[in-house]
Amino acid sequence: MQSPKPLFAALLLCGAALPAVAKDVDQTKLCGEAEERYVELFGHSSADEEGVTVVTMYKYNFCPAELTVPLGTTVRWVNVDKRTSHSVIVKESGEPESDRAFPEEFIEFTFLTDGPQDILCGPHWETQNMIGRVTVDATMSAPAE
Q: Which residues in 47-143 belong to E strands, given as ranges?
């Protein structure tokens, strides 16, 4: 008779991976809702914005939470929530926290330093874990305008 230990270990490993998968599914669904709200508010997709990369702020999340952009990219954080205000702190930039963006308002920041940079929502990063990351890759080509 075979010992149940290997099976138990395999089940533990699978169980440990499930919360991460569920979080990814939840994040995908949430970001889909954020994009629908963006289209409802502005009449077009966030991808249609020219000269900026859009990140929505929705239900205490950045959508997408992580992205990689070329050096010199301007990221626009757009608040698509109905009632909550947000701010942006680009932690490694040395810049102060942005003003609050109320629903339908936005904040922009141009990334001029290569490497990963943590993004925090001033009022919500500690209480709601509203944290993102922008990785600036100086080897990437800037998108054609």
A: 53-58, 61-63, 66-70, 74-79, 89-90, 106-110, 115-120, 131-137
pLDDT at 15: 45
- Tell me the C-alpha distance between 112 and 136, whole Å: 8
Q: CA separation (Å) from 48 to 38, 62, 82?
A: 11, 18, 22
Which pLDDT value is given to residue 7?
A: 39
- pLDDT tens, residue by residue, 42-78: 999 999 999 999 999 999 999 999 999 999 999 999 9
Token pair of 36 as six digits: 């629908």
- Reduced to 3 states (helix: H, G, I; strand: E, B; else coil), residue 36 is helix
- Greater confidence (122 vs 24) lies with 122
As given in the structure block, the two tokens for residue 69 are 């952009």
**pLDDT for 13 beyond 50:** no
- As a whole number of angstroms, the distance between CA 2 and CA 74 comes to 59
pTM assigned to the model: 0.81
- C-alpha 116/C-alpha 45 separation (Å) is 26
The Cα–Cα gap between 15 and 30 comes to 23
